[in-house]
Amino acid sequence: MAVRRDAGRRRLKILIAGSSAAAAVGLAYGATRSPLLDVDTVRVEGAVRTDPDQARRAGLLDRRQLADIDPARAAARIEALPWVQRATVVRHWPGTVQVSLLERTPVAAVPAPAQRWALVDVTGRVLAHEPAPPVDMPTVDTTDPVPAPGERVTEPTRAAVAVLDRLPPALHGRVIGVRLGTDRELEVTLAGGPPVRFGPVRQVQPKLVALATLLDRTELRGVTAIDVRVPTAPVLTRR
Questions:
Q1: Sheet containing 84-92: which strands, arranged edge to edge?
Q2: Which of 34, 54, 31 minimizes the C-alpha distance to 42?
């Protein structure tokens, strides 16, 4: 009988412990459902070209409970927006969510459907379609299709954009665009200067250095074309 009483006491202790643990879990879960832990404020910082409300909707940050928000998943959804390069989502208890955005920088404008222009960053991602290219932004003349914002242009167009992103300071303002031919070779357009045969997107830095050196040291009057396809032996064509 003593043994049975001891066994009964042990079962009772186990039952009480289990009930206490379940009650604690229930209380903890109930606490996260409390109106005190509702999402009261969503602060969006760094949004210049991104609509803050769009960022909130993309991250599903309109959820009522702070505990329901997964910061990593919310950030990934916000980063799918065209202008957003990186998003950081932080929960501040009891009821605030802070979103910090790092936006992308357009480096070129590309002809888009409906007589519009696509702003493209260095990775080839389309950021927006605009009625006209921004002042002083170089352009890429291509017949390749241009997708909707948030998607990327074709690989040849991406390579042309990368050339513009690598322009040295001496060529800023002098190079106003590039043309991508059907043969996938580039022609550089100068402001008030002759066309420049750039050739394939190879040896980009040596070609840009050769072009910058020629423009710095050469009188372009009478020059009808510049060829830097062989950067160690650039060629000038005169009338």
A1: 41-45, 96-103, 84-92
A2: 54
Q: In what order do the strands lie in the sheet with 175-180?
A: 126-130, 116-120, 108-112, 139-141, 175-180, 186-190, 196-199, 223-227, 235-238
Residuewise pLDDT in 10s, the chain (239 residues):
666 666 666 765 666 655 554 444 443 444 444 555 688 899 999 999 999 999 999 988 776 789 899 999 999 999 999 999 999 999 999 899 999 999 999 999 999 999 999 999 999 999 999 999 999 999 999 999 999 999 999 999 999 999 999 999 999 999 999 999 989 999 999 999 999 999 999 999 999 999 999 999 989 899 999 999 999 999 999 98
Residues with Cβ within 8 Å of 114's Cβ and at least 6 positions away in sequence, in order, are 129
**Which pTM was predicted?**
0.80
Chain Cα centroid distance, residue 74: 16
